[in-house]
């Protein structure tokens, strides 16, 4: 099982002080707290990770033990990544699970930052190295397909960030690269449609109001 990087979860340096840990936790807790994201499963999951990271890093003894484990964990992974359980298949399965979670959520209420964070965690620099070393092309296909499905609720900027990582997974596979390109094209078109809907709706409302006023005079 992959060791969670609590420093990345809180967005701080491993050299961060206790005050910096507290500030990072407060900032993220305000954003992802379940009370502010009722019914948003993604935000709830991310809040749990933030709380778990904070509880570990704010306690001096727990933090020291975690730092020790983290050091040897990454050292071990760099030497023998496949023996530690992180494989392209594992990443693909995690991506499928994430897609299933996203599919169950209300797209209009899903927390985009939390979803992007989860995708970036699965497509981290280390995980991308594992995928690129893999000799299992089907796993790469599954990662790309299910990651793209996860981007459906995301805006164009966030989708671009994910697609940039997925291009590394696709490598020289022209079909996967085309699929990534098509996803970005569709997202751009959707953004243009969304931008035109609001002005059209406002114009329609103004027209209705004008007609009502004209009739009642």
Detailed description of the structure:
- By secondary structure, the protein is an all-alpha fold.
- The chain has one domain (6-216): Orthogonal Bundle (Helix Hairpins), CATH 1.10.287.110.
- It contains ten helices and no strands.
- The chain has helices spanning 6-10, 18-32, 41-57, 60-79, 88-103, 112-122, 125-133, 137-150, 156-170, 174-216.
- The radius of gyration is 22 Å and the shape is flat.
Compose a concise summary of this entry.
This protein has 217 residues and is mostly helical.
The largest sheet, given as strand count, sense and whether it forms a barrel, is: none
Strand portion, in percent? under 5%
State the CATH architecture.
Answer: Orthogonal Bundle
In helices, the fraction of residues equals: over 70%
Distance between the termini: 73 Å
Instruction: Determine the structural class based on helices, strands and strand pairing.
Output: mainly alpha
Name the CATH class. Mainly Alpha
In total, the number of domains comes to 1
The CATH topology turns out to be Helix Hairpins
- Provide mean pLDDT, rounded: 85
Order of helices and strands: HHHHHHHHHH
**Would you identify the CATH H-level superfamily?**
DnaJ domain
- Uncertain regions: pLDDT < 50 for 5+ in a row? 79-83
Q: Tell me how many strands there are.
A: 0
Number of helices: 10
- Rg computed from alpha carbons, rounded to a whole number of angstroms: 22 Å
**Morphology call:** flat
Domain J: 5-70
GO molecular function, one term: protein-folding chaperone binding
Protein name: J domain-containing protein
Keywords: Chaperone, Membrane, Transmembrane, Transmembrane helix
